[in-house]
Here is the input.
Amino acid sequence: MQSSFTLKFIAFCAVFLPATHAFSHVTLEQQQVESGVTYKAVLRVGHGCEGLPTTAVRVQLPSGFQGAKPMPKTGWMLLSKVEKLATPYDNHGKQITEDVTEITWTAKAPEFALKDSEYDELILRGRAAMPAGAAWFKVTQLCQEGNKTGSNPWTEIPTSGTSTRGLKYPAALLNVIAPAATPAAAKPAADPHAGHKH
Ligand SMILES: [Cu+2]
Here is the structure.
């Protein structure tokens, strides 16, 4: 009896423990979005680096993610990296040739660092203009306490498909789906800014 229970318990852990840990990686709260809409990325930071507090989080945006803006966080400074685009795009009739490709939040002082025992969310917003398919947000988490440093490079992408099973440091996945078919009458104008001026 007891050994049978133990075996079942071990089997249970083998199945559920990796999944539970996956929830504590840096992941996106909302993992699906329609192509072409504005997307609010909420990055969930579940733990530090082997016990060390988080002092910086750097997010590499997937290509096709347009006009990204980070939400400021008290006690943390922001840095947005802008790069020239391989393929310019149109915004309000203006040709956009460079865009934000990377956003970094950095704690201004040790007292603002996110402890390993705490949970927090980092937020950014932009237009998910990439085509349907998997988009990956590569996140690098840096940690420091005194002169001890650590990092978690959440940058691994599976060679095929979207399952991150077996990856030690999976990047955060966003499933981009084709826009839902809407009845012709309810369809917004092709230019989303046609109805207003700014
Ligand atoms: Cu984790």
The pocket of copper (II) ion is lined by residues 21, 24-25, 46-47 (CB under 6 Å). The two ends are 72 Å apart (CA to CA).
